[in-house]
Specification:
mainly alpha, 505 residues
Length: 505
């Protein structure tokens, strides 16, 4: 077995605040990072248009690779509770080049999405206040969005406890609003007080393969649904600040995916049952559909409550998306893969303030520049996130299998939980990556509707980002002469470091 250790100077850096977060805090951060209220509102119309009444079934199917990859996160965190997560673990299992590109993918995803989440929070703030003129003004929306980014960045820097407390408030509002909405709507369906197009829920809705259109419809639905779970890994990115850092964050990630599944199934069943499938054709890519149904079912006041839930959902995710990006830059700097300055920890607040400010600044610049030049480009950039997410999660699945390969046959549970589940997740996400590449290479699939280098802009942005990361990694390795971080060699887990089932000591 080969073994490589982190350079001693990495351990001399001031650390993040130990034991600041418990299991519940980790779950809250994991769930909030996915922006559940916004996510379900944003994708429900597209899913219904793709698979009809089988929408809950597609959400159930999309959960499979997520929980498989969450298992990989659990076991990799057991042996290496590093806040760099994918970067640190892929480096450990597969070497520095793939590890660096994996870290780059996390940073790029954060830079691309943070501004857009703040943009949604800004838009829904104006809608909540009845300021339709401001909601229709790109400048007004951008100004408030930038203010939100600055505010959420300040909270993230001020301390992980303050971040967690803020998330508690926001997730309580989201889940309360979503569950109350779903329950009341389902009661109206059961009592015959819903719309004339309402449909009584059936167990057959949970079968994804019963969708009209066959496998093509299933794949189309999966390409939409798979990414509404993205973000639960933030629970693991705060592992160094968590109590029981080796197992607590992994448990939080697994619990987050299960909670998200329950919320998504409940709300999707309620919305489809209440409105049928016809209404959603007018709301593709428009998250306001959930407020429209709430207005119709429960009146304008409850519709405002749902708008508030979507607002806080996007705002919470703005903050929590900063966490994994900033901690990835911290981990990369500690290992010598990025400038040492990014490893700085605030002496009082014990947060990676330099990396946090850098990520937020880059995200703000990306959002302001490209939203000003072309909102369609920003939409294409968001579409390209699928490549970065699939790559990041998929690499973790494969890294877990490869790192633990000598332990997989020691027990049946090791084989299934440490090997097979992460491998299935990795293969599933690789398929999604390839399928997305095929679909998004068509210029007609882009919001810009133009061709870059003969293919669609989302393909160029997504795949191009990963290729750029690989080029940078190779250049940095060549300039270093293969020394320092770039001299690391892949490792294999030491015997006895794992046990068979998630949750074991």
């Amino acid at each position: 077995m080969s073994s490589t250790t982190i350079a001693p100077e990495a351990n001399e850096e001031p650390g993040l605040k130990k034991g600041a977060l418990g299991l519940v805090s980790g779950v809250v951060i994991g769930v909030d990072s996915t922006a559940p209220a916004y996510s379900i509102a944003a994708v429900i119309a597209g899913l219904v248009l793709a698979v009809g009444l089988q929408t809950p079934g597609i959400m159930l199917l999309a959960f499979v690779p997520m929980v498989c990859v969450a298992t990989a996160y659990y076991y990799m965190n057991r042996v290496d509770p590093d806040c760099g997560t994918t970067f640190a673990w892929v480096t450990r299992a597969m070497g520095p080049v793939l590890g660096w590109v994996s870290g780059w993918a996390i940073l790029m995803a954060g830079v691309i999405v943070i501004g857009s989440l703040a943009d949604v929070a800004s838009l829904f703030t104006y809608l909540l206040l009845g300021m339709d003129g401001a909601a229709d003004s790109k400048a007004a929306v951008m100004v408030l969005a930038v203010f939100y980014i600055v505010t959420m960045t300040a909270i993230a820097i001020r301390g992980i406890e303050l971040s967690a407390m803020t998330q508690f408030v926001m997730i309580a509002l989201q889940i309360t609003a979503l569950v109350a909405f779903a329950v009341v709507v389902l009661v109206q369906v059961a009592t015959g007080d819903a719309t004339p197009s309402s449909v009584d829920p059936e167990l057959s809705w949970f079968s994804p393969f019963a969708a009209d259109g066959g496998s093509s419809a299933v794949v189309a639905g999966l390409l939409i649904a798979i990414f509404i779970y993205w973000g639960w890994d933030s629970a693991v990115a705060v592992n160094e600040e968590s109590a029981d850092s080796s197992s607590g964050p992994g448990k939080a990630a697994l619990l987050s995916t299960v909670i998200l599944l329950g919320v998504y199934l409940l709300v999707s069943v309620a919305m489809v049952a209440y409105a049928g499938t016809g209404l959603f054709g007018d709301f593709e890519d428009d998250p306001s559909v959930i407020a429209v149904i709430a207005d119709d079912a429960l009146g304008t006041a409850f519709g405002k409550f749902l708008i508030l839930a979507v607002l806080t959902s996007a705002l919470a995710s703005t903050q929590t998306t900063i966490l994994p990006s900033s901690r990835t830059s911290l981990s990369m700097a500690r290992m010598g893969a990025m400038p040492k300055r990014l490893a700085a920890i605030h002496p009082s607040w014990q947060t990676p303030h330099v990396g946090t400010v850098l990520v937020a600044t880059l995200a703000t610049l990306f959002y302001v520049v490209f939203n000003t030049l072309s909102q369609n480009f920003l939409f294409d950039a968001l579409t390209s996130l699928g490549f970065l997410i699939a790559f990041n999660y998929g690499m973790n699945g494969f890294a877990c299998v490869w790192y633990h390969r000598k332990e997989l046959t020691r027990s049946v549970s090791n084989f299934f939980f440490v090997g097979l589940a992460p491998f299935v997740g990795g293969v599933f996400l690789t398929y999604i990556f390839v399928k997305s590449a095929i679909d998004l290479s068509d210029p007609a699939a882009s919001d810009l509707g133009s061709s870059w280098l003969g293919v669609g802009p989302p393909f160029v942005i997504g795949v191009g980002s990963l290729v750029l990361g690989l080029v940078i990694a190779l250049v940095l390795r060549a300039r270093s002469g293969g020394e320092g971080f770039w001299a690391r060699r892949p490792e294999v887990v030491a015997p006895g470091q794992i046990s068979g089932v998630p949750g074991d000591a």
